[in-house]
């Protein structure tokens, strides 16, 4: 018996502006390779429209393997502020059993960490923000795992901060990374950047490996659509960035998470709402 596990890490599919060829290819790979699990780290849709969620739900539910789905900033209601504040996650209801789902494999767990909020005291709201409550849920889940279990933490935003209050990538990211390092997690899995990366971040409690997946949409940045294939041998993770053009992994990855790594704003991207009263942010479930 071997501890070897194969995981597929997808991100930023952006139904509404997805790449049909890439999606067909990935779905075929999942059907033929039968990975032990698939982690989708957010931005399932382009504008969180009902039709986009219907497409995302049908595609994700057709994957006959264990799947965990994280919430991305593009998956929060864009044009209905009442829904965004009161029921921001109801459009996930068709795949609710997969949203922020912990996947427990023999000796290996994928644990979710929410990095999006309905609102935050800075603009744009597309940046990451880890609340104390969200981090506590993740750490509690990790601490409850059987002794010796290795952990991957799945989130949407890379858990790095740029060093300034206004432009920080993910508020609370450095603290979260330090707590994950304390628990010796194998790596964080994230998206948002639209380019793949594999870097190590140093914290007060040791290093943390950060793995980012590229996009499966037409909204590319500097590399073509791709996904990550992770192979775990019981001790270490080997990473291959899979793409339709057979470009080597090292050429598909960026060297660092830049301060401004998002693709250009789309023409219908909303502006900051005026006079909106920010409520308390609830968990997805």
Give a quick rundown of the structure.
The chain is α/β, with parallel strands linked by helices and 285 residues long. The chain contains 6 helices and 14 strands. A 7-stranded mixed β-sheet has the order 4-5-7-9-11-10-14.
What this model shows, in words?
This protein is α/β, with parallel strands linked by helices. The protein has a single domain (5-254), classed as 4-Layer Sandwich (Purple Acid Phosphatase, chain A, domain 2), CATH 3.60.21. The protein contains 6 helices and 14 strands. It has helices spanning 20-33, 50-61, 81-86, 132-143, 173-182, 249-252; strands spanning 5-10, 37-40, 67-69, 103-105, 108-112, 128-129, 150-154, 170-171, 187-194, 196-203, 206-214, 226-232, 237-243, 253-254. The model is unreliable at 163-167 and 267-283 (pLDDT under 50).
């Amino acid at each position: 018996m071997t501890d070897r596990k194969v995981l597929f890490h997808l991100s930023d599919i952006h139904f509404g502006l997805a790449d049909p060829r890439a999606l067909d290819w990935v779905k075929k790979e999942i059907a033929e390779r039968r990975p032990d699990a698939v982690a989708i780290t957010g931005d399932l849709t382009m504008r969180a429209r009902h039709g986009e969620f219907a497409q995302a739900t049908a595609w994700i539910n057709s994957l006959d393997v264990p799947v965990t789905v994280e919430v991305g900033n593009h998956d929060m209601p864009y044009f209905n502020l009442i829904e965004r504040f009161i029921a921001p996650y109801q459009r996930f209801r068709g795949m609710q059993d997969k949203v922020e789902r912990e996947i427990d494999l023999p000796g290996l767990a994928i644990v979710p960490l929410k990095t999006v909020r309905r609102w935050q005291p800075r603009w744009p709201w597309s940046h990451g923000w880890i609340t104390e409550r969200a981090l506590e849920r993740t750490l509690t889940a990790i601490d409850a795992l059987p002794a010796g279990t290795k952990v991957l933490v799945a989130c949407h935003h890379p858990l790095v901060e740029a060093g300034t209050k206004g432009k920080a990538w993910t508020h609370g990211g450095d603290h979260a990374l330090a707590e994950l390092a304390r628990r010796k997690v194998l790596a964080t899995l994230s998206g948002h950047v639209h380019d793949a990366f594999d870097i190590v971040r140093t914290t007060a409690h040791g290093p943390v490996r950060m793995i980012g997946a590229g996009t499966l949409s037409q909204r590319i940045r500097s590399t073509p659509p791709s996904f990550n294939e992770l192979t775990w041998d019981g001790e270490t993770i080997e990473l291959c960035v899979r793409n339709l053009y057979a470009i080597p992994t090292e050429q598909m990855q960026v060297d660092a998470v830049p301060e401004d790594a998002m693709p250009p704003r789309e023409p219908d991207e909303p502006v900051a709402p005026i006079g909106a009263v920010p409520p308390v942010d609830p968990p997805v479930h």
